[in-house]
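Data deposition worksheet. Section B asks for the primary sequence of the deposited chain exactly as it was used as input, without tags or linkers unless they were present during the calculation. Section C holds the resulting structure in token form. Section D is free text for depositor observations; keep each observation to a single sentence. Incomplete worksheets are returned to the depositor.
Section A, Depositor: J.P.
Section B:
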Amino acid sequence: MYMTTRQFFPRRIEGEEMDCTWKEWSDLDKAIAYCHRYAKGVRFVRVTVEDEDGNLIYELTDNGIITDNRQTLAENKSLEEVKEESNSLNYHYMKLQSNPFNAIKNKSKNIEYRLYDERRSKIQTGDIIIFENIETHETIQVKVLNLYRAKNFIELKQKLCEKSIIIDKDFSPNMMKKYYSQQNIDRYGVIGIQINIII
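Section C:
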């Protein structure tokens, strides 16, 4: 038996949890055909096929990348490392204005500044963030490289400058007042998410 797992965002709303659907198959080819049939739409994230032992056999992501381990299985090689890496990935969804979205896309911005609230506290190094341009609805995927916490955006900027991650002109803490109240900043603290674009 084989199990397909399809992951998607139900409403494509920032901060929402991913949803999953599962389906069992007796035929591997039919399971893979199902992957390609339903791997579409703006809400889709990825779909995988696993065997009864939980080994990852096939994966298709929203950026069209295919991982096919059928040959490896045929050669009786262990897929434990592949399985472990796949299962450790967490996806997060955030919306951005066009300017910061394009800055990340062209690699001139590698830190995303956010309130360290309940949603952002779930982000871990190695996770994937899907950013959506709220004007064009274009999406990009980035990988989380590091996380930097601070009491406020002034302290965060100081930390990042000391580590030579950014320079002074890269970030203005006052700009964040447009998005977050001082009350919430004092309550939750803030975070700088160091990212690297995947696609």
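Section D:
The chain has a mean pLDDT of 86.
Strands lie at 2-8, 19-25, 44-51, 56-61, 66-68, 91-96, 111-115, 128-133, 139-150, 190-197.
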